[in-house]
Amino acid sequence: MTTLKIYTDGGSKGNPGPATIGVVFFIKSKKILQHHQPIGVATNNDAEYQALIFALEKLKEIKNQYAIDKIIFHSDSQLLINQVNGFYKIKNGKIKEYILKIKILEQEINLPIVYKQIPREKNKEADKMVNQIF
Q1: Which CATH class is domain 3-133?
Q2: Measured over all CA atoms, what is the biggest interatomic distance in the chain, rounded to whole angstroms?
């Protein structure tokens, strides 16, 4: 069984302000993909969601290159993880759109996906990707 671990992060200077996403993919302890990019002006929360959506889209592209059985997403955003897992009610229309996009991508990927909140210090790789831009 091959588990793909994906670490995502998003950040904004100013909230809203110039924002960046960072994503790192690991199989076992081997880094197979890393990516960072500016996303324009956004809030921290928007950046966190855009990082997750980017990772899901990238996963859809590469999943057949690896014998992946399970995906575990890691984020230090408690809000994001609890919203995606359905623990927090979502009132914001933009966040509802992000959630809809995530659910569609999950169906297209068609593999078991788990979302876990981790402490910021365990999300160093993705955080480093975000901070390369700033």
Answers
A1: alpha beta
A2: 42
